[in-house]
Amino acid sequence: MIGKIHDKNSMFLRISAGEAKRGRKKYELTISPGGTPIVRSLWSGKSFTLSWTDIIGLAIEAGIDKK
């Protein structure tokens, strides 16, 4: 699995990056002071984080190294 789900009681030091909507669901978009992206579902209260290692892996899978 790529990324990690954190329960609604998890705490993070966060910097706001905005919000997003998808249908009726709303998401709080933040960044940790170290630069880790955090998406929080306002519906469930759960958060999702994606490490830089995961991001690099996704970039490689998408073809970033292809000429």
The strand count comes to 5
SSE pattern: EEEEEH
Number of domains: 1
How is the main sheet built? Answer: 5 strands, antiparallel
Could you name the ranges where pLDDT drops below 50 across 5 or more consecutive residues? none
How does this structure look, described?
By secondary structure, the protein is α+β, with helices and mostly antiparallel strands. Helices cover 16% and strands 39% of the residues. The protein has 1 helix and 5 strands. It has one helix at 52-62; strands at residues 4-6, 15-22, 25-31, 37-41, 47-49. The chain has a 5-stranded antiparallel beta sheet with strand order 1-5-4-3-2, with no helix packed on it. The mean pLDDT is 96.
Mind sketching the topology for me?
Elements: E1 4-6, E2 15-22, E3 25-31, E4 37-41, E5 47-49, H1 52-62
Antiparallel strand pairs: 1-5, 2-3, 3-4, 4-5
List descriptors.
5 strands; 39% strand; alpha+beta; globular; 67 residues
